[in-house]
Design brief:
2 copies of one chain form a homodimer.
Chain A lengths: L2 H15 L7 H8 L3 H13 L3 E3 L5 E3 L1 H23 L8 H8 L5 H10 L25 E2 L8 E7 L4 H9 L7 E7 L6 E5 L2 E5 L1 H4 L2 E5 L4
Antiparallel strand pairs in A: 1-2, 3-8, 4-5, 4-8, 5-6, 6-7
Helix pairs in contact in A: 1-2, 1-4, 2-3, 4-5
The structure holds a DNA duplex.
Chain lengths: ~220, ~220
DNA sequence: CATAATATTTAGTTTAATCTAAATAATTGT
DNA sequence: ACAATTATTTAGATTAAACTAAATATTATG
């Protein structure tokens, strides 16, 4: 399994999770910053290896083994991210790039020991769940902040966009995972929100709210 | 800089250190388990990049920047080995392979933080010195055990051969870095040695002794 | 529903890294 | 010193992963 093949599987997995339909070549090309013709080539190869199902002009779907492989790569990526933040004190906006490289290191033993060393973390620094060794991902009942109603309360548990610019924005505005947020008001016009977060009130745009996941608190 | 290029520089550096003459294409091919013709190709490319000096039929020598690059890779390799042993409890015979992959991860910041996390180790688990960030390697006055005279005492500081089979042999025979060894007798016939190591006496072959580095103790 | 727009594939090229086989240079031994 | 051996390079082929441009299929629109 080459780095490139692993990256394709990962991209297809991510695209596939939202709407379990088949994933188009163009979507993959977009996601991976490559050309559709390159995708066609690779997809044929992965199909021959039994990692995905492909019929001309009809997109692709990961097979069982393709899904397992993708999850194994994602597991490595997220565990390495935890390591970088917890042990080497990187900030959460710096780790993605490095983890993109580390996720391709080939050694089951290594990732298992690293996992143990970190105390078997359940989530990466951006709140994304870490798949188990046998490829299970616990799906949580988190919702986007934009879907919460006025007066509802929730704990911020993950970010949807984990680009450095968004993460730095959150740092600058002292919004972190684990913080409790209450929706005070919603603006019809632009979908922006008035929220209460840890003792202070603030106003956030719809754009921000639509990239923050919260887990609702009972009885709010 | 590709993985392959880095591996070539590393191999050439290692070959060059013993006798600072130019390194032959065949020697590189041997070291890297590849064909001489492949080496010729790569050597031309590295030469065009200014990483080494190459004249047809006359072997190669690393340039300044080639040497710096090789040392940077070796530094990464050795720091990762320390991490694997110290933090993840791998044994010293398991780490080379994994470090061969980790040494190619591109991030100055990563290796500096890892170095700090490990307390700025000076040697890897096999006793090899870790080059400094600016490419300096402290050369020590260690000698092979075969070069020590009867009644001399030394501390075992490094291994020459760090193949798993040799390292496992040492483990099995309870010989570790840091142990004090005294030469009790030398056998003329086969060069084998009678040694005293930490409370016990043992007999070791010339083959073993010629792969163990010791640092002599004053007044022995 | 026919055509325009879009998506996808095919064909042919490129680059990096390797290989084999053949050619050529260097070295060794008598 | 010359022939034989060995080392090295050259030439041409291969594989993986890209790309561009052209061809073809699908989808959307008037």
């Amino acid at each position: 399994m080459t780095h490139s093949e692993e990256n394709y599987l990962k991209a297809i997995f991510h695209l596939g999770k939202m709407g379990s339909e088949s994933v188009s070549t163009n979507a993959i090309a977009d996601e991976m910053d490559t050309k559709p013709s390159s995708v066609t080539d690779m997809v044929k190869k992965l199909s021959e290896k039994g990692l995905l199902h492909y019929k001309k002009y009809q997109g692709v779907q990961l097979s069982g083994s393709g899904t397992r492989t993708a999850l194994a790569v994602i597991r490595k990526h997220r565990i390495w991210e935890v390591f970088l933040v917890e042990k080497l004190n990187f900030s959460w906006d710096e780790v993605h790039e490095i983890a993109e490289q580390l996720e391709h290191i080939k050694s089951e033993e290594l990732i298992d020991r690293l996992d143990a060393h970190l105390g078997f973390p359940k989530h990466d620094p951006h709140g994304d769940p870490i798949p188990s060794r046998d490829g299970k991902v616990k799906l949580s009942d988190k919702r986007l902040l934009t879907e919460a109603a006025i007066n509802e309360r929730g704990i911020c548990v993950a970010v949807k966009d984990s680009s450095p610019s968004f993460l730095k924005f959150l740092d600058k505005n002292k919004i972190a995972l684990g913080d409790q947020i209450t929706i005070l008001d919603k603006e019809e016009f632009d979908g922006s929100l008035e929220i209460q977060i840890k003792q202070r009130k603030m106003h956030i745009s719809n754009e921000i709210a639509s990239n923050l996941y919260v887990k609702m608190v009972e009885g709010s």
